[in-house]
From TrEMBL:
GO biological process, one term: DNA-templated DNA replication
Signal peptide range: none
NCBIfam families assigned: holB
A Pfam cross-reference name: DNA_pol3_delta2
Protein name, UniProt field: DNA polymerase III, delta prime subunit
Length: 327
């Protein structure tokens, strides 16, 4: 994947490509930004560009070096990620040994990409700092962090800061529809998960479209008989594979109730369930704005209870009963 195909992140790409053109490559880069902003994708593209045999400021994805990196078998590119909850000092020491060993036979640049670098233990961070200050070979470190400010100040000061900003949901939605994803699924996915890759993966799951349809049917029932809604939940959720995704159901409900509120406020451009506007024209006025906000809160509380390992069936049934009390 070339820089041109990376969605957004113009400032990050400008910093990296300027360094490539000027042949001024830092010994360490700190990619800082939220989950889903393309840090790893950009790091891999930058690594390929540094080794690319054809292009000066990008990667061709076709030469031997680019293909080796794509397949994860380039000898001079290492990827480090947390073992369990953190990156440990032994991992940094092993990296140092590996690079030291190779430096005896080659003066070629070596690159390591560290995922979730802000999860290094204190010992690991101090060991990395020494490695940054005294590399055993020409080395480029690419540190990826959701919160770069959580890193040791001494590591920050020795690294080129590369900022990554959240992508706007409309950017991701447009990209997904370009790839053939239905607009109705794309608009929901980008509101539920972070970033292009996660949104794309969610839309590719068959159960997601089914869950969306079930939520709409349950949403209709919330304005009628609670017993009917409970029966529908039992038949269409807990007797199917959708029982594994009840947490996602509550996220969809939250968006559904928010759409009702936005419809009342004449914010049609913000609607997620754009294919349900005829239904919304009837349902949106069955509650006050405060009532829809209350329903949104119930959905958030239900998801929180799910994370606390309360029975999904119990949580959903109590949620459906609770929604009936909205006004």
């Amino acid at each position: 994947m070339s820089f041109q195909r990376i969605l957004g992140q113009q400032q990050a790409k400008k910093i990296l490509q300027h360094g490539l053109r000027a042949n001024k490559i830092s010994h360490a880069y700190l990619f800082s930004g939220p989950v889903g902003t393309g840090k790893l994708q950009t790091a891999m593209t930058f690594a390929k560009a540094l080794f690319c045999e054809r292009l000066e400021d990008d990667c061709c994805d076709e030469c031997l070096s680019c293909r080796k990196i794509n397949h994860g078998n380039h000898a001079d590119v290492q990827i480090i990620e947390p073992e369990g909850q953190s990156i440990k000092i032994d991992q940094i020491r092993e990296l140092q040994r590996e690079f030291s060993y190779r430096s005896a036979s080659s003066d070629a640049r070596k690159i390591y990409i560290m995922k979730q670098a802000d999860k290094m233990t204190v010992q690991a961070a101090n060991s990395l700092l020494k490695f940054l200050e005294e590399p055993t070979s020409p080395t480029v470190a690419i540190l990826l962090a959701d919160n770069g400010q959580a890193m040791l100040p001494t590591i920050i000061s020795r690294s080129q800061w590369v900022p990554f900003t959240p992508l706007h949901s409309s950017q991701i939605c447009d990209k997904l529809t370009e790839e053939g994803v239905s607009l109705t699924l794309a608009r929901a996915a980008v509101q539920i998960v972070n970033g292009l890759d996660a949104s794309r993966e969610l839309c590719q799951q068959n159960w997601f479209a089914e869950l969306r349809n079930v939520m709409i049917q349950l949403g209709k029932e919330t304005g009628g008989s609670v017993s009917s809604a409970l029966v529908m939940a039992q038949q269409n959720v807990f007797k199917t594979e959708l029982a594994e995704h009840v947490d996602m159901l509550f996220r969809l409900f939250h968006l559904w109730f928010r759409d009702m509120l936005n419809y009342q406020l004449n914010r049609q451009d913000s609607l997620v369930f754009i294919d349900q506007q005829e239904l919304m024209s009837k349902m949106a006025w069955t509650r006050t704005a405060e009532g829809w906000v209350s329903c949104m809160q119930l959905a958030l509380e239900a998801e929180k209870r799910m994370r606390a390992n309360v029975s999904p069936q119990l949580v959903l049934e109590q949620f459906l009963v609770g929604v009936q009390g909205g006004t």
